[in-house]
Structure formats: C-alpha cells, structure tokens
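Before going further, learn to read the protein records used in this course. Taken together, the tokens spell out the fold as the letters spell out the chain. A record is reproduced here so that you can trace the correspondence yourselves:

***
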Amino acid sequence: MLTQPPEKLSETEHQWFEHLLNASDAAREAYSFSQEFRALLTNPQADELLEWLERATRSSLESIRGFSENLRRDLDAVVHALTFPWSNRPVEGHINRLKLLKRQMHGRAGIELLKRRLLAMAN
C-alpha cells in the first residue's frame, strides 16, 4: 500500500491509510520515501536519484537506509537503468526459460531435443 499512488486506493483503504500516516511518524517517512522513489522510476532523473539517495542515507528508518546503501553498491547500473531506454530483460527472460527447460528434463536431453522443446515452447 505504501508504494501505490493515492488515487488507486479505495475509499476504505484511503481512510485507513490516512489514519496510519497520522498515527505513525515512521509510516509517514516510509510513505514519503516510497512515493518519491516511485516518481523517480516513472520519470527517471539521475541527479534526482542522487539527491534521493543522500536523503535516504540520513533516514531514521533502517530499512530505507539499507535500501539506499544497496542501491549505492550498484549505482552505475541503477543510473543506466533509469537513463537508457533499453535493457537486457528480454534476453534474461529467454535464458530463464531455457534454464527451466533444462531443469525439467533433469539435464538428460541432448542439444537437439532441447532446441526442439525451446522452439515448441516459443510457439
């Protein structure tokens, strides 16, 4: 619920959520960080990400600090994912499908059978 935009919540959910935010500083802070990060993903700006990471590092919530530290470990990849319109997700999807087929056949199939099953699965 913290990551959803407010307009997607039902009236009951919205009321409950408002009550939660008014009752808890931690929930309010987590909601603020999650909405800001969500906005970064929908409208990527590398410089805004760096500002967000700087603020998240000083957060009072350990989970937000940990998340920001993990993002910083692979910052180049995160910035590239936000900056460039292409990715290797489709290739990774095909590789995962191939690995699934190999596991299903318990590693006993030759390359020809594997190739035929992969092509059949694609159709």
